[in-house]
Amino acid sequence: MKEQEVTSASFAVTARNRLKRRHDRGRYDHEAVYAVLDAGFLCHVAYVIDGQPYCTPTIHWREGDWLYWHGSSASRMLRNLKGGTPVCLTVSHLDGLVLARSGFNHSANYRSAICFGTARIIDDPDEKAKALRGVVDRFYPGRAAELRETHAQETKATMVIGMRIEEASAKVRAAGVGDDEEDYGHPVWAGVIPVSTVIGAAEPCPRLLPGMEQTASVASYRVGRRLDETLAEAQLLYEGDTEADELVA
Amino acid sequence: MKEQEVTSASFAVTARNRLKRRHDRGRYDHEAVYAVLDAGFLCHVAYVIDGQPYCTPTIHWREGDWLYWHGSSASRMLRNLKGGTPVCLTVSHLDGLVLARSGFNHSANYRSAICFGTARIIDDPDEKAKALRGVVDRFYPGRAAELRETHAQETKATMVIGMRIEEASAKVRAAGVGDDEEDYGHPVWAGVIPVSTVIGAAEPCPRLLPGMEQTASVASYRVGRRLDETLAEAQLLYEGDTEADELVA
């Protein structure tokens, strides 16, 4: 069992984010939480309307301890909630199927990060511009400058929801089969079947202009490469670019 | 835009499950919803405690229009809620990154199913036995019989949550780049980068007995195969086995 690491760069542990089960798999430090968030393209956002929970898959991006995503079905509700609404945003990666010698000990290897905060519509033009800075470049660093310029009308039509991560936890299982000692003699195959999300061969748009090659930010999404590693690398490059911009400015 | 298919085998469309955006991508029929559910190993469950939403990743399995999963942080709350609690269970698959010529038209290819119901603890012994029938065999059809028999104590210790799907919707984007007509002349690479979750080389437990080979249900998780296809196939085999059992019984 790994000693739980708590540094100054950790989220506070409260009744809301404290792990209810398998404490040994939990971490509350920024590094562990961000590693899971940054390796994911899709997240799931839970929110409540009139007591009814909703769980919406969407694309998220991160700037420091802020998370952003596009307008969801919560948008209309949020329009009327200037103070924002509590949400829980979760990113999960499945890493393996764990087949034990008893049904009870079957499991999965995974990484997940659960983040709590108060979501609100990012309406202020400066704040919105800042939030939208990463929407393309966080995934494909440098690509935004290569695109057709964004029209003011598009920025206006784009609903951006944001929240500061108030509390969070990460949970990881990365281990082999854990059978009961007396079961290892049971005659059945047991083991881990790893799974990973990988990149396939790019399908260029049929209307591509002649000679249009992928630039570095896109070319890093190479055939056969793991998506989680590629996304984590892109986030690091993006953060480096952002810091460089801020030094120049 | 595809004509929306509504057959008798469809979920009712209400304010809760009606798509708020991109109606053209939505389906409400059982077939479309089950296809997304059955191709996934992980789901995300949203529920509410004292107004606070939670979004928990977990493993789900399906029997007809019922969904089951293991006890989550909601368990303690559910213990005191005999009538159950409203939840939203979502399964999502990322199929591709869509890189357009403008930031605004960047997108993703995906399949998602959002299911609404009232979750409760499955406590009744017969109902629990029925719910647990699929917990191994739905993923690895026939494996349960090969395992060390489940102890009564384990069944007791296993918390099973279940819900009938009251309403649901599926949403799919499976398309190329959709740029504005005037942007196709913009000089930048555009296209789709497909992604898929695939199976890696099995890692046998180091304490495997000599000669223990994978049986068919596990061997179908072959290296390089797509996880979603393998899971969907397993569900079909499982349903076939279940029907055969019922005919015999």
TrEMBL record, chains A, B:
Pfam families: Pyridox_ox_2
Domain of life: Bacteria
InterPro entries linked to this entry: Pyridox_Oxase-rel, Split_barrel_FMN-bd
First and last residue of the signal peptide: none
Protein name: Flavin-nucleotide-binding protein
Native source organism of the sequence: Labrys miyagiensis
